[in-house]
Amino acid sequence: MNHSPDLTSPAPADAYAGDVPRPAEPPQIGPNSQEAADSQAATAPSSWWARLWHNLGRDAGLIAPSLVISLIAFPVLVTLVSVSIATVIVWVGVLLLPLTLTVARAFGNLSRVRARAWGAPITEAAPRPRGRGLRWWLAPLSDARAWLDLLYETVFALPIRLFTFSISLAWFAGGLGGITFFFWGRFLPEDEGDTVDWVVAWVTNSPVTDLGFSAEATFQFVTGIILLLTFPFILHAMALLEIVSIRAALSTDGEAAAMQSAQSTHPAQSSALSTIAGSQGWFWLIAAFVGVVLVAIAWPVTTVLYGVPTVFAMVLAFSLSAALLLSVRWPIPAIGLGLVAQLAGILLTADVSGAVRPFTVTSLLALVFLHLIIGLRHRWIHLVALWSGSALIGVLALVLPHAGELPGALSNVITTAAVAAGAGVIGVIGNLLIKGRRQLESERELSAAELAKRQELEERNRIAQELHDVVAHSMSVISVQATTAKYRLPGLDERSLGEFDSMAGSARQALTEMRGLLAILRGGRDADLAPQPTVDDIPALVDVTRGSGAVVDLDFPTDPMSLPPTTSLTAFRVVQESLSNALRHAAGAPVAVTVTAIGARLEISVLNGEPDGGADAGGHSHLGGGFGIKGMRERVEALGGSLQVGPTQHRGFEVRASLPME
């Protein structure tokens, strides 16, 4: 049995009062359609090794050109930004800055394209509407996405890609060099000991002993094998790191509403700050960037300037950075870790002479950024708790031995509390501005939705009027003519009178359903509350069809069936539409209707033979628009059933439906 053809056309409008709601289509992420996803799934490698090699090539294709692209983008964008800022005083920079943003947008789109080619669900950043003339040239200045692309490509992309490329290249080169060490290692100059000598001495806690070239070559070969075997996983991890950064900074999923409202009468202008705040990924990037910089600065500074042991300085630096990362999503653990790290830093540096205490410069920077992120991301009560805790720690630290006199330490505490409070206030104000802008955008979206709904209602009313004027009027004429035929045409025999009575009944039923449809199109409040047809009305429907001269055989269960109302109505509509199609497209052909309850399923079959004259049983005629099969399929699939339609081997046509009975 062949399935029906393409079902991507618009859904038919032949809905009736009481119809079951049709399910919404599943959301699609990114530009790939469902067909493309199915195609990718069909062509995906099946075995583990095939998937491994597939991922290896995909990851290498992402990592290999990344650093080259950043090495081109970084100097170009930095040069353009520098020249724009330097010449803004003579208005040249004002004209050059839009070009800079356009170039940044191009590099950002290139990163999105590469991420989509890798397989990440990220959408293309749609361009904002631009005016003409000078307004067209200056339009990028108001594009928040262009500014964020510039920020990512000039600040974040190069360090991340340098890290991923270096790790991948070093790992592969180490593995390749290890397995080939036997050929080139003998040409290396001899020193106090090879790698294997130092490893053995460290493991056995013994002096370094020369084990010879064979031992070194064997050790390097085993190490190289291990590195090469783990290289696909390391490369995949590096590719995931780059994809995560691209999705965090360049994903436009959070801007769908803004882009949708951009097509309305009053487009919503999304600022860079609100765009960053609407995307948690940007906070992760900023927190990670600041955390890495903080570790790189705080670790050596705390060790060298303040005399803290290296291990303690490392733990302290990583604790401050971890608090920044936690503050993006988990404020309470971040506050606790940040305060503990601040207290530990004060205790470790309390008795060291030199700069003013208790807060060091690095701990002050960490505290400022922690206040800023907490203020932007979370409730004000978290910010108050953080500031109160840090101020309390500073006050208690005044009783500890500290460098300098008490006035210097007190000044340090007051300065730290004031700067932290200022950062927190900036974060709170930014949070309020962001929430206000979001609320404004939501109101605009709601207004646009209401406008679209009103336009839809107006269109439905227009369609209802057209249906009333054309279809309902014609059906009324048919009903009147069929009803008055026995009075206007004397001498009709009983068979002819029965035909006219059947026509009149069908016309009246069609008019009743048409009134319900018109009521739905006009808003549904005045819809007829009469009961809808059920599966028990199928025999009567077949009798009416036989009255038109068609030969219809019915196989219907004698025992009553207990079906949900929606299933019962759908079964009736399937048989009704199938009989209607058979009468239109296969005139004169016998029709067999079968309704059977098998287990928990209701099986329906409507089969017609070859029509008179050998016409295509499944063909279309001028009487139908081809929406009947689509409507049946939507009704059946909405209930979790299945529908199969298509020609038979005997030049007939069959409709088979399977519906759940529960």
How would you sum up this structure, described in words?
By secondary structure, the protein is mainly alpha-helical. 65% of the residues lie in helices and 5% in strands. The chain has 22 helices and 5 strands. It has helices spanning 34-43, 48-63, 66-86, 92-118, 134-138, 144-179, 181-184, 195-204, 213-250, 256-262, 272-278, 280-304, 310-326, 331-348, 361-377, 380-397, 406-483, 485-488, 494-521, 538-546, 565-585, 628-638, and strands spanning 552-555, 591-598, 601-608, 642-647, 653-660. A 5-stranded mixed sheet has the order 1-2-3-5-4, with helices on one face. The longest helix is centred in the C-terminal third of the chain and has 78 residues, at 406-483. It is elongated and about 125 Å long.
